[in-house]
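Appendix B. One record, verbatim.
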Amino acid sequence: MLSQYLYISTAPSLSRDEVDAILATSARNNPARGVTGLLLYNGRNFLQLLEGDKAELDSLMARISTDPRHSGVSILHSGEVAERTCPKWAMKRVIIAESVANRRQLLEQDLPAGLEGEVRRMILNFAVLN
């Protein structure tokens, strides 16, 4: 059975290059681990959706929790899913629009269609944080 984690963390001092490096590493390593998902960064906080085998995700979350580039890792959701919502995304960066007024609408267009309602709501709520 597939598992899914959604977490938020704080990383106020990362540059765009550092975030790009995280994404590149994820895109390189995740396929071999069977991990897919998406990552949002608003300049201060990460919100990441991870999906894959539970043991693999537990190991990944342990590494993420001790990564010094961010702090305050809080799991917002974890559970089993029948199928992947991001099957083709080794790790997709979802861009958050500069205009707060447009963020939710633009993010909604970028999110996968099969995303469970409560998880979708939490991701959309993240979009309006500054």
